[in-house]
Design a protein that fits this description.
Helix content is 21%, strand content 33%. The protein contains 5 helices and 21 strands.
């Protein structure tokens, strides 16, 4: 039965978790740490049934299948809960599988045996490597984890080149777009901090990479967080109490950086040294006569747009009620009429707020 007292389970020495789970929360934590290695990408962990939404890549690493997961410490606890409908769940993830009459179409993933299988495979691989190419340092203990499970640098060498290149690009973009951010590897992850010292309480984002996958977890202020792209999903506080996570691809990296920037701004907007008004272009879409600019507010207070001007073509009204709350964005359609935008040229777009402040965006076609 699950243990409810302040006790710990047997030592498992899995990277990031020294002891075995003793309750359902421990199962959630362990599965979150193992997900990449065993072939799952987590989309959301939530309250209510079922507990999690995942993409299962075990059968095909190139094409996953969305599935619903329910976490239990012991699988036999599942049928004891009236709200749990086996037809609305694909997988039970548990520490111990003790349910004898499990439905045929319901899969059970027992982490206890799965963890042992991973350890056995690691030992077998070490033995093969020793036969093929004896190691220069034979002092490594048989139970040690591969370096890529404990070291960010080793993990970068373990992942596919495309994954590594995209991860490094994302790190560079976050360093540029999150003002004052600090970052460094932490265990097998890469962490970002809004100030020194570089400790957990100052951490704002964590980059997680698998062999072919990249995910970014961000800490958010729920009152000042907005994801206009809908790519980040709430998590049940794996890295942070208020956490959202998104898969990162070469197609959505710009959107991921934009949302991370909003979240970052929402966290540090209480800093009185920040600019009161700070508008920036988040994304843009060009047409012959219109460019749609998504403008984000990275300041500490609400901003109302009044007018805009392309080059010296004359001021035009931005419309009524164009208020941007801190950490949010709106789309401004900038019209070039009666002229057309010319490809290969750059244009100054000036925007004025209700306080008279003017912002200049240099937009290139």
């Amino acid at each position: 039965m699950p243990v409810e007292r302040d006790e710990v389970g047997p030592k498992i020495d899995y990277p990031g978790l020294t002891y075995a789970p003793i309750n359902e929360q421990g199962v959630v934590s362990l599965f979150s740490m193992m997900a990449d290695e065993i072939g799952f990408a987590i989309e959301a962990i939530r309250q209510g049934f079922p507990d999690a939404l995942v993409v299962d890549y075990r059968a095909n690493r190139e094409r996953g299948v969305k599935k619903k997961i329910e976490f239990e410490f012991e699988s036999s606890h599942f049928p004891k809960q009236k709200s749990h409908d086996a037809t609305k769940c694909d997988i039970i993830v548990c520490w111990e599988h003790d349910w004898k009459k499990i439905p045929n179409d319901l899969e059970v993933l027992e982490l206890k045996s799965l963890l042992q299988n991973l350890k056995n495979k690691a030992k077998e691989q070490e033995a093969v490597e020793e036969l093929v190419a004896p190691r220069a340092n034979p002092k490594k203990i048989a139970g040690d984890k591969p370096d890529y499970m404990t070291s960010w640098d080793a993990r970068l060498q373990w992942v596919l080149p495309a994954t590594r290149n995209l991860a490094l690009k994302l790190i560079q973009r976050l360093e540029t777009d999150l003002p004052g951010v600090k970052h460094q590897p932490r265990f097998k992850w890469h962490s970002f901090f809004f100030r020194e010292p570089l400790v957990r309480k100052n951490e704002v984002a964590t980059l997680i990479i698998g062999r072919k996958t990249i995910r970014l977890s961000i800490r958010v202020n729920p009152q000042k967080f907005n994801d206009p792209f809908g790519i980040f999903k709430p998590m049940a506080g794996f890295f942070y109490e208020q956490e959202h996570r998104a898969p990162v691809t070469s197609e959505n990296v710009e959107a991921v950086v934009s949302v991370a920037r909003f979240a970052y701004q929402g966290l540090i907007s209480v800093d009185p040294t920040m600019q009161a008004e700070d508008l920036r272009v988040v994304s843009r879409v060009w047409f012959d006569r219109v460019v749609r600019l998504q403008i984000g507010n990275f300041g500490a207070r609400s901003v109302q747009l009044r007018d805009y001007e392309v080059g010296d073509w004359g001021k035009k009204s931005a419309g009524t009620g164009r208020i941007i709350e801190p950490g949010k964005a709106i789309v401004l359609s900038v019209r070039a009429e009666p002229r057309k935008f010319q490809k290969g040229q750059s244009y100054d777009v000036h925007v004025w707020t209700n306080t008279g402040a003017m912002f200049r965006f240099r937009e290139a076609l």
